[in-house]
Design goal:
Number of domains: 2
Oligomer: single chain
Strand content: 25-35%
CATH superfamily of the largest domain: D-amino Acid Aminotransferase, subunit A, domain 2
CATH class of the largest domain: Alpha Beta
Order of helices and strands: HHEEEHEEEEHEHE
Helix content: 25-40%
Shape: globular
Number of helices: 5
């Protein structure tokens, strides 16, 4: 799933990398075998444009693949997370596609994360340009109201999170009501529970 999402992101950036999900997974396995990590490890493969040029464009530029790995600790406190609603808004999909893991978009995340930490919080909840709840600085968000698990739709300018999708599937298998819909900011303050989720963030 992760390899497929990355390759879809590369397509958004007009990449001509000749890889399929299995080949990309094989490269990652080779990296793990060579480094033999002893604990939980975060792996980040990424594509980048290899040419040096002044013109801002994506077409007809060589593409390169990089992969790095690092020990995976607790991204956020496991005892509970303090979050603010950021003054920064999520970049809309028609500016930088939210469904792609595009490195440049992480500047938006960094602004929100820094703002949260400067205010003594662990992370930020970011609204979209319509004023609806989008997600965390680099993670998806769920709230719980009246025994219903609620998360914003992909069209709210959020990443198509794999962990998010898995949580929805597990919840439905367990008979937990799930509602995928726009979320108002005010609902954050009256929710029974809220949690972030993501590959690095976990749940």
């Amino acid at each position: 799933d992760h390899a497929r999402r990355l390759l879809n992101s590369a397509r958004l950036l007009r990449s001509d990398i000749d890889l399929n999900p299995d080949a990309l997974a094989g490269i990652i396995v080779e990296l793990l075998e060579k480094n033999a990590p002893t604990g939980d490890t975060y792996i980040r493969p990424f594509f980048y444009k290899g040419a040096v040029q002044l013109t801002p464009r994506l077409r007809n530029i060589g593409d390169e693949l990089g992969v790095y790995m690092l020990p995976l600790g607790d991204y956020l406190p496991t005892s509970g997370v303090k979050a603010i609603v950021s003054t920064w808004l999520r970049v809309p999909d028609n500016v930088i596609p939210s469904r792609g893991k595009i490195t440049g978009a992480y500047v938006n995340s960094a602004f929100a994360k820094d703002e949260a930490e400067e205010q003594g919080a662990d992370d930020a909840i970011i609204l979209n340009t319509s004023g609806k709840v989008a997600e965390g600085s680099s993670c998806n968000l769920f709230i719980v109201r009246d025994n219903t698990l609620i998360t914003a739709p992909i069209t709210s300018d959020i990443l198509e999170g794999i962990t998010r999708r898995t949580i929805v599937e597990i919840a439905r298998d367990l008979g937990i009501a799930v509602d995928t819909r726009e979320v108002d900011r005010s609902e954050l303050y009256i929710a029974d529970e809220a949690f972030f989720c993501g590959t690095g963030v976990q749940v």
